[in-house]
Amino acid sequence: MNGGGRRSLVRVAAALGLVAGIALALVAHQQGQIEWNPTALRARIEALGWLAPIAFILAASLRPFLLLPSWVLMSAGGLLFGVLGGTAFGTIGFTVSAAVAFGIARGLGRDAVAGRLSGRVARLDAYLTRRGPLWIGIYTSLPVTPLTPAHAAAGLSGMHALGFVGAVAIALVPRTALFSYFGDTLASGDVQEILIALVVVAVAAAIGIQIARRVLGRSSARAGGGEDGAA
Of 19, 123, 189, 227, which has the most beta carbons under 10 Å away? Predict the structure, then answer.
């Protein structure tokens, strides 16, 4: 198969993935009445018994289409499976979710974007192609950052797919562990433990905001001005 045929096949697969994701999300909303509430999600998933881990991973994988905040599902994982189980299942599901967002954006938009790159945008694309996995890994690990827009944007760049998936999978571990810990304290019902968990999450969020402003801000400026930081 020639290059044009492969690109067409990728676009078709991405479009089918997008349609399938939207369709599954609509069915889930109609049948399950999904709520933005960790305890409500726990009740829905826990009722499935031994299928609960599979259902949770599937829900995390479809999260961009379900329009659920990442912290809700991650906290629900802690409620359901404890810190270790929530972290493991959440990392798997959210990695799949990231790969889906990346793949759909890459399949549907990369060719169109690549033909229009110029100036600072072209330099940013070149920077992401070389160092994007490290940047997206730091970004993903922060508890305060929106995931899906950044992961889709990575798909529009020249970033290598395997590097993206590897970086995201590693970076999701601390983020998922943090909210799984919070969810686990909710399951305990101990007010003191819940308050401590809230403080931990708040401190982590504050640190995350500072890291996002300094590290990612400097990286973006360097990318816009070239490797040496020159304007």
Answer: 123
Tokens of 149: 């827009």
Averaged pLDDT score across all residues of the chain: 75
Q: DSSP 3-state assignment of 116?
A: coil
pLDDT tops 80 at residue 154? yes
- % of the chain at pLDDT higher than 90: 17
The Cβ-side half-sphere exposure at 153, using a 13 Å CA radius, reads 15
Who's near 161: CB < 8 A, 6+ residues apart?
99, 102, 103, 106
230 within domain boundaries: no
220 in any annotated domain: yes
Domain of residue 202, residue span: 3-225
Q: What are the residues whose beta carbons fall under 8 Å from the beta carbon of 47, sequence distance 6 or more?
A: none
Q: What is the pTM of this model?
A: 0.73
Instruction: Determine, yes or no, domain membership for 34.
Output: yes
Q: Tell me the chain's radius of gyration from C-alpha atoms.
A: 19
Query: Into how many domains does the chain fold?
Result: 1
